[in-house]
Amino acid sequence: MTESTDWPLWEVFVRSRRGVSHTHAGSLHAPDAQMALRNARDLYTRRNEGVSLWVVPSTAITASSPDEKDSFFEPSGDKPYRHPTFYEIPEGVKHL
Amino acid sequence: MTAPTSPTSPTTTAPATAAAALALGDDALVLSHHLGEWAGHAPVLEEEVALANIALDLLGQARILLSLVGDEDELAYLREERAFRNLQLVEQPNGDFAHTIARQLYFSTYQAFLYEELARTDGPFTALAAKAVKEVAYHRDHAEQWTLRLGDGTEESHHRMQRAVDQLWRFTGEMFQPVDGAHDIDWPSLQESWHSSVTEVIRGATLTLPEGPRADAWAAGAGRQGLHTESFGRMLAEMQHLHRSHPGATW
After folding, report:
1. A30 in any annotated domain
2. Which residue windows are coiled coil (chain A) (predicted)?
């Protein structure tokens, strides 16, 4: 394997079957979007894992920063009332 | 052309069908082996997986086809060079990546039209062809995408892709020799479809269509008759040596 490519990085999302969301599967290098889709097909769906693929340039993704971890996520840690666990579910109620 | 007798297992396949299965099966087997040679050497990891996938599709086709003829392992590993019926195109060495892509473009386009026809007609290859059509559609797309990008890429990639389509051009005429046992194929019309498809891709890639004979007296290729080019013996030696050194070995 030669150290050659300056191809951009793409994030791959696979939908495993109809009705469920696309899930992040991994990333790969490709020269353009069409080739990225094909590489994704070869790398992430060769064992019949998917029915639909998205590829997104990694640079298009804005990620939260580890520095913001405390202000982003910690405040929700001690608020169990945000979980709908304080209600008695009446018998016979479906789809909850 | 007569089907070489398999070393063992007489089959119930009609001789003409067996002859066609051998020709098409050998095409798939030999090309599969060459594509497998890229493992560990492809320009990028993603492409290595792509080529290996294509190789495995072809190997699957080869196994089905050769098992119509006899014992698939004996056919693959114990036949001499002259008993192989593959096209000379598929036995051409990988060369650089552009060479491999040009070989893929020429062959997968041929296979796409051929299997489409075989899937349409009711015969011994209908089921195999119906499945293979989808695999081959991807192989063809892969080759076309790369031809376009290399041809219309950098000066270097354009030069290499042009060199590759030129050098392999003379092996393309042989593909349209009628294959015994594949009676329902309209070969001239297959050739016409192939030619217009390949022309469109090559022009789209800003390359020039190779000129010169594709099938003259010496360039015609006689792989279907068991005559092969120089490098094929070396490929076979590598492909067969393990089986010949350790007959009957299992994992």
Report:
1. yes
2. none
Query: What is the residue range of A52's domain?
Result: 9-63
Cross-chain residue pair B50–A2, CB shorter than 8 Å: no
**Cβ A29–B142 below 8 Å, yes or no?**
no
Nearest to B46 among A28, A32, A34 (CB): A28
What's the pLDDT score for residue B217? Answer: 42
Interface of B with A (CB under 8 A): 40-50, 53, 138, 141-142, 145, 149
Average pLDDT over residues B37-46: 91
- CB burial of residue B241 (10 Å; 0-12, 13-18, 19+): exposed
Number of structural domains (chain A) is 1
Domain B15-245 indexed as CATH 1.20.1260.10: yes
Token pair for residue B27?
Answer: 């095409």
Residues of chain B found within 8 Å of residue A7, distances taken between Cβ atoms: 44
- A60 CB-contact burial (10 Å; exposed 0-12 / middle 13-18 / buried 19+): exposed
Whether the ipTM is more than 0.85: the answer is: no
Alpha-carbon distances, residue B222 vs B88, B90, B176, B225 (angstroms):
7, 12, 12, 5
Q: What is the mean pLDDT of chain A?
A: 87
> Which chain A residue has the Cα nearest residue B56?
A46
**Residue A41: partners with Cβ closer than 8 Å, 6 or more residues away:** A53, B138
pLDDT class of A77 with cuts at 50, 70, 90: confident
